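Hello,

I think I submitted the 6-O-phosphono-beta-D-glucopyranose job twice by accident. Can you confirm which output corresponds to this input? Input:
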Amino acid sequence: MDKKGFIFDLDGVIVDTAKYHYLAWKNLADELGISFTEEDNERFKGVSRKRCLEILLDMGGVTVSQEQFDAWLLEKNEDYLQYIRKMDASEILPDVPKILDYLQAQKVPMALGSASKNAKPILEKVGLSGYFHAVVDGHETTRAKPDPQVFLLAAERLEVEPKACVVFEDALAGIAAARAAGMYSVGIGDPGVLTDAHRVFRNFTEIQLEFIEGLLQGRA
Ligand code: BG6
Ligand code: MG
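Support: Only one job matched these inputs. Its output is below.
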């Protein structure tokens, strides 16, 4: 049996920061007079900060100088940081520690694979850094999800074959990235949205340890 590796996205999988990204983009969109709904926000999930702003400006039909673009990127992030400054372990999504503890007890190598440049400080704030053998974040990747780069790099760091990796993702772009990497994908969210995932659960409380055990034994 191949040695398995588990790779977790951060925002919207481990912690509920997807709502803060949304609020910060919404604030900027309001300021620019661009309509921005939670439905629009689905396209922003898993996508780099820069790409999100490009999409937002496209939605509003706005073209701007590089300088203005960079200023808005900074403004969105500073707004986002106001939300995450107050974060603590209470914002870890329900039953995530149960799964992480189980995998740790089985000595399964685990990595974080996130598009966010804020991933490391967030992990520290919520006290989960110790679980991960590798953290690949937005500082290390040059190609955003749905490109598989982030997950392939995580597998390399774990010294696990991509085909023996399992990815937990809440974003359409992230599921596509996992698939492109040749990995098994577990969607966390709406089954009607994450249709390309191998399996979908609304949240971690729906995941039984038997399912994880099955993945470890290659029974998925
Ligand atoms: C992803 C989020 O994890 O990180 C995206 O799903 C976000 O919504 C991206 O745009 C980049 O995050 P950050 O923290 O670098 O702006
Ligand atoms: Mg996510």
